[in-house]
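On to our target:
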Amino acid sequence: MIALIASFLAFGAAGINIQSPFESVSYKVPTGWKEVEEQGSKILIPEKLKPNQALIVLMLPPENSSSDSHEKQFGAQVAKITEGAKVHYKGDIETSNITAGKVFAQAFVLEDEELGRNLRVIAVVFGSSQRLSLVVVADPPELVEQFESDITKLLESIQFKAPTEKPGAGGQTNRDPNAGKAPTGDTPGKFPGMPDWRPSGRGTPLPKTEIVDGKPQGLWYLVNYMSSVPRATMYAFLPNGVYCTNPVWGGGNLVDVDLQRRTSPAGVGTYSVTGSVLSLQSTGYEARRAAFSFASDESGLFFKHGESVFRELKLPTTSAIVGRWRSMGTQYIFNSDGTFEMGQVASGDNWVSGSNSTGRFVIDGILVVLEHRGMTVIVPVGVVSAKQLLIGSALFVRS
């Protein structure tokens, strides 16, 4: 066992930056396993092994993904790990979706001078911008099947965290001057915009809005042309093939898929692209399949699902939202010093009424936290363009 570990730590030291921290990833060690850290890598070993048995799961430090396809990145990792070994058997590449993203895995029977003949399973988990490589080594090979459930649970528990912000020149960060954190809590029966609503504090990280391996990821909006009031719907497409309509937010950069499944299951579905066809299947409904294409124009990135046009929705920043915004009888004014005004006007036959509020705001990802009159109101705000904001489901125009 010692020789086995030493050999793979040598690989980690040669092929990966072993100083990379594990701060950007979390996981659960299976029950009955022990974990050690050596030379920047994590090693997991089941405690109940016989003297003539060897099984380790080597977890290499997480890395930033490259611009290459997942298939090409996986192939490069496999080539590193199998370099110099004689290949007696090579299984098919298998893929699966987990909460963190997509897993690529391949089994080998290899032989080299240091380890002799052994079964090696190589897996790479791809998140929205990071990847995590794991190597399972078993002797005898039957141990992989014996501990398959534990290894699967380990993979499914992996979560990538949003990268921490690093200081720039002079020790300064590039943080928005009005960046902050939205308070969290369990608020059943409440919705964004209500004074008592809070994001749950749990969920899947919202990935960057882009097309990855020919599939949409991140935050998008779809204009509702049937509404008498200018409206649009937010969509979050996650790397694991799940999408959410009007996402339930666990935080400024978290989508609480589990909570949305419990409270509004029709708002959760799965998506896939086969050839030039995008399939969207909401829970409880038949799949909607239509031609898929994507491009960009002066307004930014977009993709088409049949006649429907989904456009990228940008996260708000102070510089993007400063100004006066109107939609029907509602007006927001956001100022660069972190103050805001909000006014509403309603009218009927021979009457007009209005209200006005002032306070301060902070920005947490997609969420803008409004503090006024001793109340905290949290609303999702997306930047459509320099002239339009999406606040909740209403489109506001700069005036």
Residues 1-21, 164-173, 350-354 have pLDDT under 50 and may be disordered. Residues 2-160 form a domain with the Protein Transport Mog1p; Chain A fold (CATH 3.40.1000.10). DSSP finds six helices and 31 strands in the chain. Residues 9 and 39 are 7 Å apart (CA to CA).
